[in-house]
Amino acid sequence: MSKPFIAKVPYEASHPTGLAVYCSDGRFTNAVEELARHLGHERIDTLTIPGGPGLLNRWSADYLESDMITRAANFLIRGHHIQEVFLLAHAGCGYYQTRHGALGAEFVAEQQLKDLQAAAEELRKTHPGLTVHTYFVRPQGTKITFEPLS
Ligand SMILES: [Zn+2]
Predict the structure, then answer these.
(1) In-domain check, residue 6
(2) Ligand 1 centroid vs 145 CA: distance in angstroms?
(3) In this structure, which residues have their CB less than 5 angstroms from ion ligand 1?
(4) Ligand 1 centre distance from Cα of residue 104 (Å)
(5) Residue 87 is inside which H or E element, if any?
């Protein structure tokens, strides 16, 4: 039997109070955690799926996908007493390319912003008192920029 690996990061029994909903795309994972730390969240719950918060917009996403991620988000927000949610869409998202790519980059970016807005509205409506932040994430050279949306 091989030896177990023991992480240096300690286990903390309390749940984080922040939840980030974003794309599975691993090029952004560390940066999203860094943003969360910058905003005072040492640890976060995460809900990652290709397309991220775009799937929370039941008007544009596939019904079953949308239903699943909406239930998952509601479960985490209620069960883990989440107070702050970060919804992040990123430039060059493969999910959006596959789904809407034929309609051009401008259409895709617009759809991403619409989806972020719809997702934020839906969460705010379902969970009064919840703070929801939306960001468009853009790689620029070797930097990753988070543009907050109003
Ligand atoms: Zn993506």
Answers:
(1) no
(2) 15
(3) 23, 25, 93
(4) 16
(5) strand 84-90
- How many whole angstroms separate alpha carbon 85 and alpha carbon 134? 8
**In contact, 74 and 44? CB cutoff 8 Å:** no
Give domain status of residue 77, yes or no. yes
Confidence of residue 136 (pLDDT cuts 50, 70, 90): very high
Determine the distance separating the centroid of ligand 1 and the alpha carbon of 75, expressed in angstroms.
23
pLDDT in tens, 57-69: 988 888 999 999 9
Number of domains in the chain: 1
Structure tokens at 111: 């759809």
| CA separation for the pair 49, 149 (Å, rounded) | 21
Residues 52, 115: Cα–Cα separation, whole Å: 10
